Amino acid sequence: MNAPTDDLLTVAEASGYRRTGLHRDVVDFLERLARRSDRVHLTSLGRSGLGQDVVVAVVSAHGIRTPEAARASGLPVVLVLGNIHAGEVEAKESCLALARDVALGGLGRLCERAVLLLCPDYNPDGNDRIDVRNRALDLSRLEGQIGPEGGVGTRYTGEGWNLNRDFTKQDAVETRLLAAFMDAWRPHVVADGHTTDGSIHGYELTYDTSRNLASCPRGPALFVRDRLLPEVTAGLRARTGLRTWWYGNFRDNLDPTKGWDSYPPLARYGSHFRGLLGTMDVLLEGYSYVDFRTRCRVMYEILVELFDRVGAQGAEVVATVARAAADTVARGRDPRPGDLVGIDYGTPVRGADGALSFRHPGHPLLDHDVEAFDLESQRLRRVPGTERRSYRATFYGRYEPSVSVERPWAYVVPASRTAAIERVRTHRLEHLVVRRAGEVGAEAYRVVGREPTASPDVGDRPRTETVFRVEAAPERLALAPGDVVVPTAQPWGHLAVYLLEPHADDGLARWGCFDDVAVGATFPVRRLRSPVALPADRPS
Length: 540
Hints:
This protein is α+β, with helices and mostly antiparallel strands. The chain is 28% helix and 25% strand. The chain has 13 helices and 23 strands. The strands form six sheets. Strands 1-2-4-3-5-10-6-7 form an eight-stranded mixed beta sheet, sandwiched between helices. It has a five-stranded antiparallel beta sheet with strand order 22-17-21-18-23. The N and C termini lie far apart (48 Å). The mean pLDDT is 96.
C-alpha cells in the first residue's frame, strides 16, 4: 500500500490492523476525503434495512458525478462492493485506503482511464454488529479467520438476509437498491470483495468470475476468465510477490492431486447473476489463514492491478460489454430455433428420507500446479504450513446446464400476479403493460410436478424453494388490460429468461412467487415465441 496520507487513516491502519471500522467511521472517512479532493463525489445506494446510508464514492479525474457523464466519457465504469458479508471486511478497509490514495496520493492514474465507484460497506447493519466471536478461527472445521483481534460484523444483514444468496429473489432492501444503482450506472466491471475459509492452500487471495456461460452473454465472462484475471495474476505476482489463483477448495485436503473445485453456478450468487447481465465480474476472496494486515494488503493491491488493467484496455472492455448487450437485444428481437439459454445446473439427489436436494458438479476446465503446503501440514491443518509445495490437479471449473430453453420473444405475466410483476420492476427489466384486450398465439406450461427443497444459508429465516416440473404446449392466449409483457430484446434479456421460466433453478417460481399453482394447472406466465403486435404501452 501507499504510505497513509497525513491524518486520514482508516480504522485498520490507525489501530495497527487490530480493529475494523463501524459504518459511521466509513462515512466520516469518505466525507473528510470528499472535502479535501474534487476527485471524490459521494452518492448513495439508498437506506439499508435499518436506515443507514449505503454510501458510494465516485472517484474520477474528470469531474464525473453522474451516470450520464460516465456514459458520455466513454470510459470503463468499475464498481467495487465491500462487506457484502460484514465479517469479511478487507474490501471495506481497502476501498477506503484506495479512494484516499487515488484522490490524494500516488495512484491518481487509476481514475484517469476509468470511473471508479467504491461502495466500501454494502452491508452496514451487519457491519456494526462487531463481535470477536464472529468468524472466530476454528481450524478443526476449517472455518473462520485470523484477526482482526477486535472482531468483525455478521455474515447477514441487520434484517437477517445473506446478500450473496439474494440476487434473484431480492428479499433484502439492499439487493433492490443495488439493482437500481446497477441500472442507472451500468458498470462494465464489478468486483465483489470477500474473505474465504475452507481448504488450506498457498495463495493470499483467490478469485473467480461468472461460471454460468450457457446462461449469459459469453463475451464479457470469457474476457475476464481468459484474459483479465490471468493478466492480473501475473502482474500482481511480478509487482508485489503476492500469490493469487482461482477460487475453490481441494476435493480432498489430504490428497490435493484429486482436484480443485469451484462453487455452484447459481444466479443467486453475485458473480453468476452479473453474468446474466453481461457485466464483467470479478469475485475476490482474501485468504482467511493469513493475518489481517496481509489480507488488507492483497485486497488493496489486486484492486490496483485490476483498475490498471481495465484502464489500459478500457476501449476493449467497453466495446466487449456493448457487443454483448447488442447481441442479446438482437437475439431477443428475432429468436431463432436452437438458441438455447441454460436455466438449471442442478443434479437432483434424494436423501435417506426422500427429501430432494441438488448437487452442482463441476467439469474439468484445466490442469494446473496448485500451490499449497506439505501433506503433514495439510493433515495437521497447520497455518502457515511448514513447507510450500505444488500439486498437479484438475480444476473443475466448468459447468453445463441440466435444463435449457429456447429463447422466446417475450413473456406475459398476468396482471393478477402482482408479486412477480413487482420483481420484474425491482429487477429493472424493461416491460410493457397491455392497454386493451386481445388474443395472441403463445406457449404455455402445464405443471406436471412440484415439490420443496431446502434452501441453505439464505439468512436467519429458513426458506424453502419450490421445484416445478412442466411440459410445454401451444395455446391461444387472451390478453387483458394490465397484463405485463417482458421482452427478451433488452440488454438484460438473459435475466428475464432466468426469472420467468418456471423450472429455472433461481427463478421467481423457485422463490415462492407461484406457490399457489398446483399440479395439473397451467403456469400463469406464458411465452411468446415469435414477434406479435401487442396492444401495449411501455410503463411511464
